[in-house]
Fold each of these.
Amino acid sequence: MRAKIKVTLKTGVLDPQGKAIEGALGHLGFGGVGEVRQGKYFEIELAETDHAKAREQAKAMCEKLIANTVIENYDIELA
Amino acid sequence: MKSAVVVFPGINRERDMMLALESVTGTRPVSVWHTETELPKVDLVVVPGGFSYGDYLRCGAIAARSPIMQDIRAKALKGLKVLGVCNGFQIITEAGLLPGVLVRNKDLRFVCRRVKLKVENNRTFFTNRLAKGAVVSCPVAHGEGNYICDPDTLKRLEGDNRVVFRYAENTNPNGALNDIAGIMNEAGTVIGMMPHPENMIEPLHGKTDCRPLFESLLAA
């Protein structure tokens, strides 16, 4: 099984990289671009075949390492 | 005073830190490799600056989960003195020894310059030789030193006098909340700071402003 994990900054946490990307999109002439937020994406292969257990395992990974829950949210998708 | 300096792959300020500790305390610190599982018996452990694991994932995140950090964490909770400088501050924060997090500098630039550092709390093991409110010159060199935390944590840090250092005279180089440059835990046994006092203690450094910080270790 594969865990696909998206890590995003929580609302209100300053994202200077997103801001810089927002500016660059403007320089390229893209109109109508609102706020840009940058995140991270992970794919983790798991030996676990049980859906619920795999989710639990991925969740523990996020809490312990993949995300810093002070500033980041995470979203797990199993495939 | 016996001390240990922890070394991770990608750390590069460990020699400066060891020299500073030896120069002031007269005792050579023990260097501890990150795969070790037990610290030698010391009075202080320093997590130095650098770029552990190339700042992969998040600065300090991988180092914070290394074998030696488990022992440091356990002993810190029992009162062992811990000082984290720059990447070391990021590492001990990621390890949960201090609240909040250090994120990318507000203007996205790596800063390498001197700042004015104000001692906000002089009743700590690293500041007791300076007066409260004293301002010293100190170098900074980091890309992710912007300290942030939730409003409740900030209130507690400020209310409990746990902000140890603040950037003074408009020299905040990274956008840190309330100009915070260094904080401590509730017990006052763990201190983390972004600037590099170990690089301002010899005449060759240009100034010796930060020598009293290391001298404080002798009294603590």
Note: Chain B has a mean pLDDT of 96.
Amino acid sequence: MSTPLISIKNLRKSFGDHEVLKDISLDVERGEVVAIIGASGSGKSTLLRCINLLTLPDGGEVAVGDHRIAFDGIRTVLPNNRQLAKFRASTGMVFQQFNLFPHMTALQNVMEGPITVLKTPKAEAESTALSLLSKVGLVERAGFYPDKLSGGQKQRVAIARALAMKPTVMLFDEATSALDPELVGEVLNVMKSLASDGTTMIVVTHEIAFAREVADKVVFMRNGVVAEAGPPSVVIDNPTQECTKAFMARHSASTTAIASLTRVA
Amino acid sequence: MNAMGYVESKVGQPNRAIWWVGLLIIAGVCTALRHWHGSDAGPTGYKWDFGALWESRKLFASGMAYTLVFTIVCVLFGLLVGLVTGIARLSNNPLIALPMRAYIEICRCTPLLVQLVWFYYALPVLTGIELSATFAAAMSLSLYGGAFYSEIIRGGIISTDWGQTEAGKALGMTPLQIMKRIVLPQAFKKMVPPLMSQSIMQLKNTSLLSVLAIPDLLYQGQVVAHDIYRPLEVYTLIALAYFAVLLPATILAKRMELGNASTER
């Protein structure tokens, strides 16, 4: 078996006294879609943010493609800003709050990374950006500023912006959690089409149905550890761990409750 | 729609203000003109004679020129100092941040008049380097203004959403690139109104330069007043001259502020 594209070994992270990640290890193969699920505060977003070093781990090792960085508590020689930037450029991140640049049009948002970081010639960056915008179905919105876009459109531009860096892996941090319910679908559809194109993706999500449909591997996190990991048919539909069973039961109970509420309405 | 209405109604305000101020100025000039010919002694028996100032017009003009040149130079250098120290104060390194803090507090907590005198008289004794009055004046006014600019710039930077910095990091940008491409362009919009009002203060503060015998508007006014024994007319004219220069500047500042509000993205 080949070496995994992304390899996380013994990752640890504390915020003050609170240990958020306790010895996490996770491998992701090229083209694989991994969904990380779990209750709020279980550490799933922190794990994702450690993969592109937006949060610096206290211990363990993170490897994405050819880039590998090891952390060893206070003895760690922290990588300098340039090394960090290079590492991050190989990952694409989609945030819950979109974080589009408000002073740039959709097109300029998508072109910003290639031009500033990769030093791509402007014409080339523009044609790539336009094809990415058409991929997320927004090419006719290319000249719009973010405040003239809906939440779903903003998030699709943010996905195109991350893709423009031709990242090794796409990281999604609750990409649909800030959206109005009727806008969730358009973003999930873009993510589905990425997955079927063979993009390697790590997705932190509350959308269990989406995880079941799209993910190759589901990681259930609880209190800073991976409680259960495996294909969705196991982790979501036939969990072996008690805590996973309880989480899934709560989830399906709430979905049923919402469904019955909608029926009443 | 509501937001637009709000902006429109606010745009109306400076227009009305201009009318009121214009009316006041016309009334003032009419009164002055009545006294100009010496036909009316007024309630206190003082005979105003603005005609006597005409002969000294070249002194007033050169004084105004000095005031404007000093303002421009000290605003530009002040902004430069403010930008550098404002960013430096955000440094995590206390060896950089603390001296900046010290500089800002010293400049903000001592009167400009004291600084001017100290730079001109005390600094040469300490360092053995003679400073010309012009240089000492320009330097201390720039440093003084720079301290205030610095706080405005720092405030603008830290009030920019942290998500913007994270989005830049996630694209693989270095801190300098993030500052230049993402944060400063957004922060600058918010900074413009306070920077303008601080620059207006800079112009008014040039009047203190007369203590170092810089021939600015106030200094020349004092010369003329001693010359022709018409201090009331002289200082009235000087007040009007400062006002005539600064009123358009404040109106412009207001315009820019409202312009920013309506194009807020």
Note: The interface with chain B takes residues 52, 54, 81-82, 84-93, 95, 97, 99-103, 112-113, 116-117, 145-147, 161-162, 165 of chain A (CB under 8 Å).
Amino acid sequence: MSRIGTVLIANRSEIAWRILRTVKATGRRAVVVFHALDAGSPAVRQADLAVRIEGPTPVAAYLDAAQIIAAARDAGADAIHPGYGFLSENAAFARQVAEAGMVFIGPTPDAIDLMGDKVRARAFVAARGFPVAPSAIEDDDPASFVARARALDLPLLIKPAAGGGGKGMRIVRDMAVLDTEIERARSEGQRYFGDGRLYVERYVERPRHIEVQVLGDAHGSVVHLWERECSVQRRFQKVIEETPSPALTATERRDICEAAAGIARAVGYRNAGTVEFIYGGGAFYFLEMNTRLQVEHPVTELVTGRDLVAEQLRIAEGEALGYAQADVRQDGHAIELRLYAEDPARNYAPTTGPIARLRWPDVEGLRVDSGIIEGQRVSAAFDPMLAKVIVHGGDRAQAIARARQALQETVLLGITTNREFLERVLADDLFATGAVHTGFLDERASQLALAPPDHETLMALIAAAALSDAGLRAEADAVPPLYAAIGAWRN
Amino acid sequence: MRRHFEIDSTAIDAALMRNADGYALDVAGERQAIALSAAMSDGAQTLRVGDRHYRVHVARDGDETFVQIAGRSFTVRTIEPLTVFAHAGSANADLTARAPMPGTVVSVRIQPGAHVAKGETLMVIESMKLETAITAWRDGTVDAIHLAVGQTFDRDTPLVSLLAEAAE
Amino acid sequence: MRRIETRIDLRSEAFLANRERNLALAAELHEAQRRARFERPQRDMERLRRQNKLFIRERLELLLDPGTPFLELSTLAANRAYDGEVPGAGIVSGIGIVAGREVIIHADDASVKGGAWYPLSVKKIVRTLDIAIENRLPVIHLCDSAGGFLPLQSEFFADRYYAGRIFRNQAILSKLGVPQVAVVLGHCTAGGAYVPALSDYSVIVRGTGAIFLGGPPLVKAATGEDVSVDELGGADMHTQVSGTADYAAGSEQEALAMARDIVANLRRPQKMAIEQQAPEAPYYDPAELYGIVPPDTKVQFDMREVIARLVDGSRFHEYQPTYGTTLVCGYAHLWGYRIGILANNGVLFNDSSLKAAHFIQLCDKNRTPLLFLQNITGFMVGRDYERRGITKDGAKMIMAQAGAEVPKFTVIVSGSFGAGNYGMAGRAYDPRFLFFWPHGQISVMGAEQAANVLTDVKIRQLARHGGTLSAEQIAAIRDPVLEDYRRESSAWYSTSQMWDDGMLDPIDTRNALGIALSCALNAPWGDPRYGVFRM
């Protein structure tokens, strides 16, 4: 394959910016597509060419394959990088890109298809001797699905067959509500993925979410780039990721990473992917494989010193990996914090508002992948993730300390975010021991809740608000100087 | 001059006053001299409240002031006294369901003019990947549906209004 | 300007004794003010709560700009009238800041006899509006009155300065372009209904506020019509139907906030320009005034020591320091405003009268407001002085003073007797404001002189018929006269009758005069018609 000179980035926000950095750093031309709401975003500002796309909703614009391929063709792009989400795991899109004579930066459509169907993926993985959790799959026999689900031991987890990212997932701890929960999950699956098929599996209590980064080239080589611990979650969505996992022994680490590489090899996987596992009680089960660049890929980059996007581009150009498993080393510890526009005190409800002030701090080992800039407005139209704060340290304690400093010194005004909440989590004693699981945030909710501001802080806040209010100041200034000087005197 | 300040769920009435050489803040009779310096090169300002000096970042957007102080950021909403009174006296306070959080309209279950019973689903919204039903908070007649399916909205956006009840 | 050099020994016995007496007098004044402002029969306060009404003092705090002063006028009006049962004459009057504007407030106090207007209530409202006219001060009326106190109607209805004058003054204010805002917080019945009607803006509280010429009982009696208060004159009727009021408010708090918003939209008047500089506190502590001024009006003291504790930096340019020395004249700054001061240091002689006339003309010519500090027993009497034309010279002083175009302010620091009161801008000469210190006395002559005169008349009458009087009989004639005189010449009686705008704790004088000066500059004043005659 020939060199990729121009890459169209079919994504937005921080990931568009992050891909763009590497595309430009490797001497290529970067083209981005954007919806009008993103016109002022960092990626759009820094792209060599930015093409506006439209849709019935802002999200729909980024899902419009035909429009994006047309834009890529017009821009003379050699390849399309889909980022994560949107069209990244859409095999049809991958095919259309290829048919349009461009390179889809990612795995083959077949690999996407296989891993995109959770039910098929499980069966594939199980058949090749990798561990999967006990389950009932609707497709096996829709008529007996509920009965088979009922036969499993509680608790259960219901998942849409076509799902991902936690959408439509339901935990069932009481068989009495199984039917209604199945109906709800089906409705959400239908709506999000156009597919109401479900499967039910044994839910591991206090599970940890551990995943492994893999890279495969077009010549059959596959390596893993070690694991990532992603157990700190709210509403099935990751909040803090780190590597190495504080949970694994050396043996477990080797086993889980080799299992991941083995699965990728079995698939004939090409490009970057992530194999996700549920880990609990010393055992791990295959969960799913994400056939794309992962949100939390930067922690892997920081400890391995490898630019995953650069690797994706190289692999897409047909280059061989050029290194063996033994060459992939881990140096120190990295943590990623997802900065969300959400209010942890209101059950993580998303928030909207302006980015009235934004200052990233200068902290040793800090990397910020930001999708926002000062002056922008955050709407409810997209995912609430604003930026990722990623920190590298010599060990876990140093990484945590640096991450706390970075969060404290970040200035982000205008919109409620989880910034302080993240800092609270990092400061938590239990987090420091590494004893986290996917229910950690819910379990520690009361310890992690921010105290309401004290009296002095309230006074300071009101003082700051009053003094920065031009109208209010004008009213105070309207008092003639004589009367202001006399003050609240009474005769 | 008096204002109503809202910080999270805390509401405080306070007054900004001039004195001979600056400003003072009065909160329930507690009076302190206050001052806010010009921004330094990094955008930070020094806020003085009585004897305390704070390093703060302050930004404004309409009636909202955003303040970062001691590593935490807050939103302070400022409301004029007349607005407070106008809302307190509004007989229409319970006529409209407002969005509890930003999101998207998934479906609309009723038409304007429809009679609804308390608890009946009027609209389904989606936020945070979860569906939430907006139900009738009392028996009544639907006056207006403010959004269509697929539309996104911010927190506090009106969703559905019921007609006012005839006065007793 | 030179700083006055004090000659007061702060440790002298006289100073300490004066201080003790004057502090006691000030404490007595503040206690009386506290009672007049806050002490009410329980049932009256309960009635207010029942009616969902705020106490007048709460209303004022909501109306005024926080952190600003309020110069309350005639707080102790009627303190020697109506058996002391109508504190403040049932009216609060004062100058303050609303939405950054200088305003004068007339507020009915519904906690006093339901806000009924007594004769002195009417006098207080009229005076409030006179001040508004003279100083072009916007007026805020807080209306909450049951109407005139009918048993005393002959004392407040018919005469020139009686109740009709309230509405006449309102009309004149409007003619002069001075805005008025009425806030109807209770009933405005009969004449009271014209207060909001004659105001430029009126706010009325739903439920408690009402405006009508005759209330429901009167309507029932007159026409047999049954009508509710709300139907007859409630907030919604007047703001939607009759247009008699402009804004309906859901609560008193909202009504007062609306009034503030209205005032915030008033034009800020251009003030008269006078010489001004940055204000400076007096160099000497004003609290020393307590030890300087003897509580006995017969004891002489140096008025320069008083001036030193009122004016900026205690600096004073004394005019003609060696001529007519019983009257101290000169320039100073008070809260930054340049003023001309005339202060008594003894009886007025020919030369001191001429000096006064001359200095008043100078100030009038160079646009300098005048401050009169009274401690005057009168013009000198006797053959020599009459031969030198003391009456003629006094007439010059009165002529110059009465005709001066610049605003005048008077403080009765100690005694104010006889024609000295006239020369020194007594109440009849329309000083913009007149204040009284607590030990001060005012009468046509001193109490003892008056008692002696009356006793002598009696003795001479008896002597013509060959009679004589024993010491006891003389005392029986003399003592009641003395007692009457002492009572009626006290500051307390003066302020009860509103011969002044209120008693002041001496240390409050500087602030009161600062506010008075600031207000006075709102009204334009004319030019003097002649040059300055050297007397």
Note: The radius of gyration of chain B is 22 Å.
Amino acid sequence: MCSRCQLNPVIFPPNNTKGLCKSCFFKYFERKFNRTISQFKLIEPNEKIGVAISGGKDSLSLLYLLNKLKSKKRFSIEALLIDEGIKGYRDRTIKDAKDFCKELGVKLNIISYKDEIGYPLDNLIKKLKMKPCSICGVFRRHLINKYSRKLNFDKVATGHNLDDEVQTILMNQFRNNPEVSARLGPITGIKDDKKFIRRIKPFYLITEKEVTTYAYLKNFKIKFCECPYNTESYRINVREFINKFEEKYPGTKHSIINSFLEILPILKERYKNYNEINYCKLCKEPSSKEICQACEIKSKIK
Amino acid sequence: MVKVFIERQNKKMNVKAKDIDGLIKNLNINKEEVIIVKNNQLTPRNEKLKDNDEVKFLSVISGG
């Protein structure tokens, strides 16, 4: 029975052996979402927040909740979707995204690789001898930042959840990349850099199971759709490892996040010069090198 | 027989199972990676199953 009202539970969050019913779960979930925004000062009044959406359950749940919160906290939102050009995948999620934005009355901006880079990802992978995720990640980050600035967003919100962050923390740990971990956290980027739009993760303390349960119970019409290039095997292995561990020792994921938040200020201080932002000589976008990765990849396209 | 649908694999099948935990073990599914819907009701813990029950395993993993 639900630990608060004695109805049938729909989920057992960590440290709650009695579970929560549908109505108490909504309250718990939305309170946690709002608290994350306040605790980490993710959004200030009068800001314009860009919501990076893919059409999947995480980003559309994020859009729904930010839309619900915007009047109370006095901020505005617009959605931004990057169309990489992946046949049979992105075209399907774009439809869900368009329908969802229309229903909520949120303006949707769609930026495509085809217009910006010259080719859709399906063609780029034939032209470049690189892993699809390496090409996609670079151009996606590049375009999100460039268009967030053009659209006057103060910050960009993404649907990254607790599971995504835990995986990245462990991947960086296993690969000895502490300087990359120093760039993680619920809010990233440098406050006073006009060219780098800060990223915020309001689902930072929420598991993907909780987000899926929320989207299901809210009856969001989102079909499961997997990217055909989703072959980042290292992340898949780390995810399976963590999930097996969590099943055996519940609370593991939260422990990883909580201890990471304890050491994050130390990491940020230690690597503050390492992660200094410069600007690409060619496109003037923020970059850690003279020429940014996006321009470097572009130069290889034949 | 229980009617099973695994969303991630887009797979439907009929399986003999006494309860949800037995079914999960049999299909080698990690509970952390799915939400379980039995006869259109979210079912977060073990429950007995009978013939013609419908069990859906919906993926919690992001699509990419």
Note: Strands of chain A lie at 48-52, 76-83, 108-112, 155-157, 187-188, 198-200, 278-279, 286-287.
